[in-house]
Amino acid sequence: MMNQYYILQLDPQAAHEWDRCVLKNPMTGARPDLTEVVARAIEGQQGSYLIRVNLQIEVLEQNLAVPSPNRELTPEKHLAPIVSPRIAS
Q1: What is the dihedral of CA 14, 53, 57, 37, to 10 degrees?
Q2: DSSP class per residue in 5-65
Q3: Of these four, 32, 61, 65, 89, which has the most CB atoms within 10 Å of its CB?
């Protein structure tokens, strides 16, 4: 049995339901087709199968998203513009 590695991204505030829970390939960023993974396990032989899937999850690394307020970048009013000195000729 070969281990598969994915990045799981949970965002309950996502605009679309399909973006709230996403599995991604860490190398390509593509979303895996788990039915294709199962088909490879049975070597793609035609037929109907009663299968048991053993899904074991081990968290290898966790990065918590820290919500940050939206800030608008505005020029600082207390800074004077940079003016280059003129040399008299």
Answers
A1: -70
A2: --EEEE-TT-SSGGGSEEEE-TTT-PPP-HHHHHHHHTTT-SS----------------PP
A3: 32
pLDDT at 29: 92
Q: What is the pLDDT of residues 50-72, one digit of tens each?
A: 988 888 889 998 887 766 566 55
Answer whether 44's CB lies under 8 Å from 34's CB. Answer: no
pTM for the whole structure: 0.56
Task: At 56, list the tokens.
Answer: 């074991």
Q: In the chain, what is the straight-line distance between the N-terminal and C-terminal CA atoms, in Å? A: 81
Q: Angle CA(44)–CA(23)–CA(58) in degrees, nearest 5?
A: 90
